[in-house]
Amino acid sequence: MITFSTNFGDITIELDMNTTPVTAKNFLKYCQDGFYQGTIFHRVIKGFMIQGGGFTAKMKEKPTRAPIVNEANKGLSNVIGTIAMARTDAPHSASAQFFINVANNDFLDHLATTNDGWGYCVFGKVTAGMEVVTQIEKVKTAMVAGHEDVPFDPIVIENVTIHSES
């Protein structure tokens, strides 16, 4: 379990280490390294998702490790409350950015091993703080530094806590 303490409240996530081990371990490593501390939710689309994990409050992109293999073909679905990896149009380009689904977005699921069909890898779910996610989803957004849907006021991940398994 991982808790993101944001300026809006806490969001706790449970990783699916069994179904998507490469993705979950990659995300956990970024958490352990302190990478997400000070990053923002930089893309918020009401009725779709909230995305974070790549930019500072000044919209400066953080350098990441190499991209990982896309595990979207493992059968997990982009439903409300799940966390998935963000990526470019290239299927195996995810590194650090993630999004939390605020709707059932099954059109993002794996359909085929083609560029268009790969989908977006779900690797966990929100177990506490969905009300914080919903609050973030409702913020006012604008175009900032060439990016659309950026919250008008920064939504900052202030601290990341990794809870040991008991």
| Class based on secondary structure composition and strand pairing | mainly beta
What would CATH call the class?
Mainly Beta
How far is the first residue's CA from the last residue's CA?
A: 10 Å
Percentage of residues assigned to helices: 10-25%
In total, how many domains does the architecture comprise?
Answer: 1
Q: Tell me, briefly, the overall form.
A: globular
Averaged pLDDT: 96
Order of strands, widest sheet: 3-4-6-5-7-2-1-10
- CATH topology name: Cyclophilin
CATH superfamily: Cyclophilin-like
Strand content: 25-35%
What's the tally of helices? 2
| Sheet with most strands | 8 strands, antiparallel
Pfam family, one: Pro_isomerase
Protein name: Peptidyl-prolyl cis-trans isomerase
GO biological process, one term: protein folding
Domain PPIase cyclophilin-type: 1-162
Provide an overview of this structure.
This protein is mainly beta. The termini are close together. The chain has helices spanning 21-32, 130-137, and strands at 2-6, 9-15, 39-45, 49-56, 82-85, 98-101, 122-128, 141-144, 147-151, 157-162. Helices cover 12% and strands 34% of the residues. It has one domain: Cyclophilin (Beta Barrel), CATH 2.40.100.
What is the compact description of this entry?
Helices cover 12% and strands 34% of the residues. It has 2 helices and 10 strands; from the N terminus they run ββαβββββαβββ.
Chart the SSEs and their pairings:
Elements: E1 2-6, E2 9-15, H1 21-32, E3 39-45, E4 49-56, E5 82-85, E6 98-101, E7 122-128, H2 130-137, E8 141-144, E9 147-151, E10 157-162
Antiparallel strand pairs: 1-2, 1-10, 2-7, 3-4, 4-6, 5-6, 5-7, 8-9
